[in-house]
Amino acid sequence: MNNAPPASRGTAFLLLALATLFWAGNWVLGRALRETFEPNALNLSRWTIAALALAPFALPRLRGKWPVIRRSAGMLALLSLLGVAAFQSLVYYGLKTTTAVNAVLLNSSFPAFMLLCSFAIEREHATRRQVIGMLISLAGILVILSRGELSNLGRLEFHSGDALILLAMPVWGVYSVLLKRRPAELDGLSFLFAISVIGVLLLVPAFAVEAVFAPPRWPGLEGLAAALYVGLAASVGAFICWNRGVAIVGANAAGFTIHLLPAFGTLLAIVFLGESFRLFHAVGIATILIGVIVATRPGARR
Question: Exposed end of the chain (fewer CB within 10 Å): N or C?
Fold first, then answer.
């Protein structure tokens, strides 16, 4: 996939960056909504909204495709379990008990898990350039997290939710690698609608069990607005962008764009939370971008 035309690669990485931007907002909201929604309730709301939004566009495309869906039911169910139900529920559960800073730090481990999953499933080896780029981006993330003073990293506190965030990383890695095995007869909208519907069905039992111990509450207008965001932007928009980008450049290269998440999260905090922009922000974001560019340039020798 490294041989894709430059224009296609450029479009792919633009889509992957846009997906990461949408997800940065989702992680911020997931932490902010921890007292408003229980994790499975928020995840179920998210994908119900996504399925309803996709239905008018996807259902006409699915005419005559039901034999394909039946033939690929096992793979669709697995992708839905990993990418729709398990991954985001783990993240939302983790965000209930850990800080956004810790979540971003642990999320930065994803490219390493992506490389491991690609090797374990597809026997795809990492290139030297990918490893170097990953380390450069990680250095930029550490600059932001430490606020320009590495001694601050020693004062980070870890919580029980950190283990759940870390567990979510290989789950997303396996989903991304298995995307190449999705049925080719389904276009992006049809595929996303299919896994959204299956994901809703998978989440209903988990939501029912959760509701016994934590009855759902009325979220208020702000909670509803946030649910619409995670349903439309972080689910429909982000998944379409991510799935298409992975299809063009491959899971390994796409995985490095996740390092943009802390950069986008920082910018969102500055814009919406009024935080000040400091020199270490600029240095960290620039370093992250350099690492992503190094890791994703085509033609790297293995």
Answer: C
Number of domains in the chain: 1
Instruction: Quick: pLDDT tens for 123-170.
Output: 777 677 777 877 887 777 777 667 677 677 666 666 677 788 888 988
Give 14-78 as a DSSP string. Answer: HHHHHHHHHHHHHHHHHHHTTTTS-HHHHHHHHHHHHHHHHHHHHHHHTTT-HHHHHHTHHHHHH
pTM for this entry: 0.77
For residue 44, is pLDDT > 90? yes
- Determine, yes or no, domain membership for 301: no
125 Cβ contact list (under 8 Å, min separation 6): 119, 302
Q: Which two tokens stand for residue 157?
A: 């506190």
Supply the pLDDT for residue 274: 61
Position 66 in a domain: yes
d(CA 262, CA 147): 13
